[in-house]
Design brief:
The N and C termini lie far apart (43 Å). The protein is built from seven helices and 15 strands. It is globular and about 50 Å long. The protein is of the alpha+beta class and 274 residues long. Helix 1 runs antiparallel to helix 2 and helix 5 packs parallel to helix 6.
């Protein structure tokens, strides 16, 4: 099966739906949690993605932002169990989408035994399709991309994001205060998937995320590493949301993604501040 072709075609289809609704200009929304918005577009996009993956890969697990973890009906039977899991954010950047900011995306990743093998981030308004396959590099609209060569924080463009809990926001604000004064700029773009894709493409140099959700970063981390960058948690260990032994899924794993050259310096700045 051509997983890349399947994922990109589904991303384009769901992205077209998002773009159609975005262009209408008014988005109905409600609060899922105090600081977390959900729209009809999130649900509609997810419906398309889940239907297609269930049809094409019925034995694969799916982890999606709205639906949670989905397993096949006969998952406990060895014949129907697979090492593969799709990780999906049907609309990353929901708040942007709601206020008519065009920085939103569809994020689709494929993991095998807890390790990423495919990452797709599609920003329909921008027309950017970013794809990475393990060992094959990262691409933007078919062209090979690489991380930046910036090696000094005072010459770097940094971004940040955060999880939905107050503690994640407080930690992000502390990091913002520190790095904003020491870099060219540090800002929040509002879509972690796009921010990771931009690190991979060399448009920005780093992103720091206290308490990231797996669906926000699962595709982007492979884009960054395949483009020559580095992704770790705040202790400098490889970023993972699936336990290698138990296959348990963690929901709030701190993430730092950089061009690699800035990684040690940014980790030093994080140390003792979060």
């Amino acid at each position: 099966m051509n997983h890349k072709l399947l994922a990109t075609s589904i991303a384009k289809r769901s992205g077209a739906l998002l773009l159609q609704q975005f262009n209408r200009g008014v988005v109905a929304w409600h609060l899922k949690h105090r600081h977390e918005i959900v729209t009809g577009a999130d649900v509609a996009s997810e419906k398309i993605i889940l239907q297609e993956f269930r049809r094409a890969t019925p034995t694969y697990q799916i982890l999606s932002e709205e639906a949670g973890l989905i397993r096949s009906a006969n998952w406990r039977t060895a014949k129907h169990r697979s090492e593969y899991m799709w990780v999906v954010d049907p609309l990353d950047g929901t708040t942007n989408f709601t206020v008519h900011n065009p920085l939103f995306s569809v994020s689709i990743a494929l993991y095998r035994a807890g390790e990423p093998v495919l990452g797709v981030v599609y920003a329909p308004y921008l027309g950017d399709m970013c794809v990475a396959e393990v060992g094959k590099g990262a691409y933007l609209n078919g062209k090979r991309i690489h991380v930046s060569k910036t090696f000094k924080i005072n010459k770097a463009f940094l971004t940040y994001c955060y999880g939905q809990e107050k503690k994640h926001m407080h930690r992000a604000m502390e990091l913002y205060r520190y790095f904003k004064l020491r870099s060219v700029d540090m800002r929040q773009l509002g879509s972690a998937a796009i921010e990771l894709a931009w690190v991979a493409a060399g448009r920005t140099d780093s992103i720091v995320i206290p308490g990231t959700k797996p669906w926000d970063a699962a595709a982007g981390v492979l884009l960054v590493t395949e483009a020559g960058g580095k992704v770790t948690n705040f202790q400098g260990k490889p970023w993972r949301f699936v336990d290698a032994k138990t296959r348990a899924i963690s929901q709030n794993v701190d993430l730092l993604a950089t061009n690699g050259k800035l990684h040690r310096g940014i980790l030093r700045g994080i140390e003792g501040r979060v």
